[in-house]
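Contributing new records

If you add data, match the layout below exactly. Sequence lines come first and carry their own label; structure lines follow with theirs. Keep one chain per record. Anything else will be rejected by the validation script.
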Amino acid sequence: MAMNQRFFICTAMVIALLFGSVACFAQAPVEGLVAKDKPNDKGDAIEIEWTAAPVEQQESILEYRIYRSKVMEGPFQLIGFAKPDAGEYTDTGKDLINPDLPPGSDPVKIGLEKKIDYFYQVGTIARSGAEMRSGTVGPASARPQWVHLGKMPILLSTLFFFLMVAVFIQLARHGKAAYVRPIAGMNEIDNAIGRATEMGRPILY
């Protein structure tokens, strides 16, 4: 009987430790939090990234809440939410939530100001409703880029095309005859016109 009691007690302790560790993780702040300007855009977004929670621990997280402020000391305003499996959030200023509004109200549309420094915090919301805020990261500002690096192949292809056109123009000016591969179908057009002329028949081409 005593052996069974000890077994059940040990089992209960192990389960309590497992659930306790999961609950502690759910209430722990996110790690690896960084905020940076979104690349290759017109300066209207800031990316917030953090280390995503392991799959087995995501069940204890209800959601993430992202907060923003123009001052490092705050106050911070809730601007959006992220799912438990998320590791990033893009702040475009289009989903800003006003906490003074009643639940179900439409988000307040407030865009980011270009070249203005912003500071961010991320809150981890446990299933129990408890929240653990991260440290403050920043400053980060949205700045437009002159060159979209993702479209660089298009730029290089266009430059190569115009370079080849310029080269062949210069060769033609120096009397260099350009070789054009003969196409049998094109040569037969002359024969067709000649035969149509001989027979007095019209030709459609």
